[in-house]
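Students often ask why inverse folding is considered easier than folding. One informal answer: many sequences map to the same fold, so there is more than one right answer. In these notes we will look at a single instance of the problem. The structure comes first.
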């Protein structure tokens, strides 16, 4: 029978392995959305902003190509500013 310490250790190791899987996917120049969906099915760890980033990718708010993220976010922010400016007059 496993002790509480062993069970906790196993949970921590499983969590770390899961984080590593997410890191491997998110560190690619082009994120494989199909693999990200599969991995995310059982939950996305809320570690170092991974959950927010994964949701942005899964909802197509960000393109899978990392090189486009900065300009894409800049464009989205500008669009939002235009929307706000147009509705506050």
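Output (designed amino acids):
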């Amino acid at each position: 029978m496993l002790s509480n310490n062993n069970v906790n250790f196993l949970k921590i190791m499983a969590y770390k392995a899961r984080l590593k899987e997410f890191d491997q996917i998110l560190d690619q120049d082009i994120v494989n959305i199909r693999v990200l969906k599969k991995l995310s099915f059982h939950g996305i760890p809320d570690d170092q902003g991974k959950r927010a980033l994964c949701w942005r990718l899964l909802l197509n708010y960000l393109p899978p190509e990392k090189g486009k993220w900065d300009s894409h976010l800049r464009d989205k922010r500008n669009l939002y500013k235009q929307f706000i400016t147009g509705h506050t007059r």
